[in-house]
Amino acid sequence: MIRYLKLKMHQIGRATKRSAFLNKYFPKFKDRVYWAGDRNSFARAGFIGAFCMMLPIPFQMILGSVIAYYSRANIPLATALAWITNPLTMWPIWYGGYVFGTWILGTPDLFEASAHITIGSQLWFDEVFPLIWKPFYIGNMLLGTIFGALLYTSIAHFHWATITVLFKKTFGKT
């Protein structure tokens, strides 16, 4: 199975290198930093992926990949982190961002007040959406920035050598 996956990855890599579209619009796409990377590339990808994960927009994965390309970050990590908000997890994550936004802005949570109105109806867009869009977007953007900064810091400043030294100091032989 591992051998098969390595073969498929090799075939995808060869097809990617021969792609006329990628070579024309993204000429540095084959650079090693986008795929293997270093600690700084992974840290930038962590920030980008966590930030794009919290954006309440469609196609976060594509946005994360393009931003990762232009900031020379690891593309697979940024894309994978943007996948955390999939159709099953996006609603609770984004609702948490909305609640955070209502807390930051000091506005009331309108979940209970608008429970009788069908989401997406004309009445909902006329009465509820004008009241919730600001805490929804601000809360999710702030949480994306916070999660991204935490992930960037944890990847950039803590590496395996530091963790092993701390582990040995804490649980080392006495």
Number of beta strands: 0
Listing every helix as H and every strand as E from the N terminus to the C terminus, the arrangement reads HHHHHHHHH
Tell me, what's the shape? Answer: globular
User: What distance lies between the first and last C-alpha atoms, to the nearest angstrom?
Assistant: 44 Å
Radius of gyration: 21 Å
Query: Kindly state the mean pLDDT as a whole number?
Result: 83
Multimeric state of these chains?
Answer: single chain
Structural class assignment: mainly alpha
Tell me the fraction of residues in β-strands, as a range: under 5%
* Main sheet overview: none
**Uncertain regions spanning at least 5 consecutive residues:** none
Number of helices: 9
Helix proportion: 55-70%
Question: What are the salient characteristics of this protein?
Answer:
about 170 residues; mainly alpha
What do you see in this structure?
The protein has 174 residues and is mainly α. It has a domain at 38-158. Helix content is 70%, strand content 0%. The chain is globular, with a radius of gyration of 21 Å. It starts with a helix and ends with a helix.
Give the helices and strands, then pairings.
Blueprint: H1 2-18, H2 20-25, H3 39-54, H4 60-70, H5 75-82, H6 90-105, H7 122-127, H8 129-157, H9 160-171
Helix pairs in contact: 3-4, 3-5, 3-8, 4-5, 6-8
